[in-house]
Amino acid sequence: MSDTSLAHYARYQSLKLRRHPQGVLEIIMGARGGVPGKLSTADEHLHRELADIWRDVDTDPDTRVVVLRGEGKGFSGGGDLELVEQMADDFQVRSRVWREARDLVYNVINCNKPIVSAMHGAAVGAGLVAGLLADISIAARDARIIDGHTRLGVAAGDHAAIVWPLLCGMAKSKYYLLLCETVSGEEAERIGLVSLCVDEAELIAKAFEVAGKLANGSQTAIRWTKYALNNWLRMAGPSFDASLALEFMGFAGPDVREGIQSLRERRPPNFSPDAPF
């Protein structure tokens, strides 16, 4: 990043950052190396940066509000399969990524600046964590929101247990999380999973319109309101911690290997009917 106004974020390589008027910071999830049109997946670099950046946003005196979006074909892809394989094989990698996954959720919740997400196309994986935990979440009508954990053969950890039941209720949460069903942006708005849905052509403009209103409001009032409301999420911390531990326990089990193989072969998984619990 050559812009000296972005010196605060000099270490980030997998996230693109742009400053806009009125203290709006745009964070773009893109493929490492900037491969045009490629849906970004959470490899080890993007996963770490997406967990860390909210601490830097929190302490950035020039940022009032963040717009988070993806580029190319969608908002975010799922976890990088090479990283998932490393997690299955290596305790040290699994432990590191567990810590990053924990930090991603809590850092978004505790970031004092309001976050607006603009989701289009596929919204999966670590990007979806930030997308749904954002203070204002906006989805294109035909966006495809997918929590892919059970398809991979691990428990729905990450953000699911901490925010889905609060947003759309337990019945809908269990339906979509247990069955790994896709939620369209339009349906996500109907059930309360996202704040708003719009046509994709209007998505970015709407996100910046909302960000501008937040940037021009009372920063004290907005930040303190966010802090108070997010105590509902903090109260769900024990449920989140348990879900994340169970997810990462699953990365050491047999089902995740079948999940990885079936995704590589583009076929339905053939999981064992046996379960230890």
Query: What is the name of the CATH topology?
Result: 2-enoyl-CoA Hydratase, Chain A, domain 1
Tally of domains: 1
State the helix count: 13
With strands numbered from the N-terminus, the spatial order across the biggest sheet is 1-2-3-4-6-9
Architecture per CATH nomenclature, i.e. the level-2 architecture: Alpha-Beta Complex
| Biggest sheet descriptor | 6 strands, mixed
* N- to C-terminal distance: 49 Å
Quaternary state of this entry equals single chain
Quick summary:
This protein has 277 residues and is of the alpha/beta class. It is built from 13 helices and nine strands.
Topology overview:
Elements: E1 15-20, E2 24-29, H1 44-58, E3 65-70, H2 81-89, H3 91-110, E4 115-119, E5 122-123, H4 125-133, E6 136-140, E7 144-145, H5 149-152, H6 160-168, H7 170-179, E8 183-184, H8 185-191, E9 196-198, H9 203-216, H10 219-229, H11 231-235, H12 237-250, H13 255-265
Parallel strand pairs: 2-3, 3-4, 4-6, 5-7, 6-9
Antiparallel strand pairs: 1-2, 7-8
Family: Belongs to the enoyl-CoA hydratase/isomerase family.
Protein name: Enoyl-CoA hydratase
GO molecular function: catalytic activity
